[in-house]
Design brief:
Elements: H1 3-8, H2 13-25, H3 28-35, H4 39-53, E1 58-61, E2 64-67, H5 69-93, E3 99-105, H6 107-124, E4 128-134, E5 145-150, E6 160-172, E7 189-193, H7 200-208, E8 217-221, H8 224-232, E9 237-242, H9 246-251, E10 254-257, E11 263-272, H10 281-300
Parallel strand pairs: 3-4, 3-5, 7-8, 7-9
Antiparallel strand pairs: 1-2, 5-11, 6-9, 6-10, 6-11
Amino acid sequence: MPDCMISARIPSLNWLRVFEAAARHKSFARAGKELNMSAAAVSQQVLALETHLGRPLFERAANRIALTTEGSDFLPTVQISLGAIESKAASLFARQRVERVILLASQLMAMSWLPRVLADFERGNPSIRVDLTMEDSQRKAEQDLAIRFGEEPHLVRHPTWLMGMSHVVMCRKEDVGKIKDLEDLSEYRLFDVAAHAMGWTALLNYNFGPMYGSHLRLEIVDTTPLALTMVSQGLGLAIGHVPVSGPLAAALGLEICPVVPKTPGPGNYYLEQPVNRPQRSAVLRLEQALQAAAQISMRAT
């Protein structure tokens, strides 16, 4: 096939850029605001792309637009292609500068699983620095990417699955051999994290049926890092969540107590990007690195 026929099928890069923004915002007006164009100009660019392709990409109604089936199929390819072009142009031609990405995560994520992952990412991407902030931080900078935790009713708010988790009992290495059955748990203080959906009672009920645990010494603490730190000092036992709490537990010299089996869920971690900000290649790179690291961690557990 002649080269001219192949190139004739490749749409204008500007049309693709406008289409991507309109699809992401689901609005010609909001896309125009991002691109410094009028809504009418955005509509004209999209129409030119549709004419070129011979298919409609949006269904238009009063004050709203929605992607057609063809538009939905086309969008991921456009986003990946634009990101690849931007990434390659930055690596070849941009001045050497540090680009910052603000990542929001829970305290447990920030103190356990993320530091090693981010260190590996920055070594492989020396022009990118990740500013890690924790939920409820006093710093008010708007994040570029967030790691959220949610249970089934909230999944619709979280577009990209990152990893699941399982519950395990964490103890000191020297206590593993001392805990041979469930009755041995009564010898320890059992730390429950106030915000967790599955505490000691739910975990034991799930695995062993209804239990009358009045003889168990349950104590409420604020966070998983605090609970694990107290366990490391010989103050009791705590529930850990693998793989996310694994690095912190290992650093504290803790091991999994096998008396209670590893118990899946509830809840998952998700990656969430603000929809009102343009997608940057640095953010996309970080997102891909987090997903790859999560897959490795899930296989290891």
